[in-house]
Target: Urease accessory protein UreF
Amino acid sequence: MLADLRLYQLISPSLPIGAFTYSQGLEWAIEAGWVKNEQALEQWLESVLAHSVSTLELPVMIRLCRAFEGQDIEAVHYWTQFLIASRETSELRKEERQRGQALATLLPNLNVAMDDSVIEAVRSTQIAGFALAAHQFDISIQSACAGYLWSWLENAVMAGVKLVPLGQTSGQKLLMRLSERVPTAVERALAIVDDEVGSSTPALAIASSRHETQYTRLFRS
Model:
């Protein structure tokens, strides 16, 4: 039970790492008219889930959890660098670093041990910090994946609620529908072999790159 509570704390919107300040290109996609309503937002998030989160972020986190468990520092740095290299835009790379640095500051205050061999990896990407905390809190890999995925989904939907805009009820209904895909996404991520880890979301990459120079915006990325 304690591991579950620690997971809830890690994925809580109140965790002070600024997750709610990022839209990952969605703000520009809405500005450009690519996403105009609840149905279009659902399709956008389904695509990102299927072609990025479940094929890149989750598989990398799984490998980082196993690397921390096996004290394989070389693997920790390899998969951290792999993830950064897979981020197509300056904004997406900055998000990884900024959230990673915030976690690197927070985790020692939550009694998560972090020695010099891994601190740079944690500072580089928030997924490394999440995986390290999951390992030290005895959170299972499956639960960590589901929790991370829920956190991403909630932030993304709430960004859409603000930007489209949608009502809070529409946002909750959308969360209910999209969350039904979480078990399958976790199973898929667990089955992916190393050579298949990666993402293919060109629309997100274009939106993120255009967002870097968007004149008026609410979100950092």
Remarks:
- The CA atoms of residues 46 and 59 lie 17 Å apart.
- The first helix runs from residue 2 to 11.
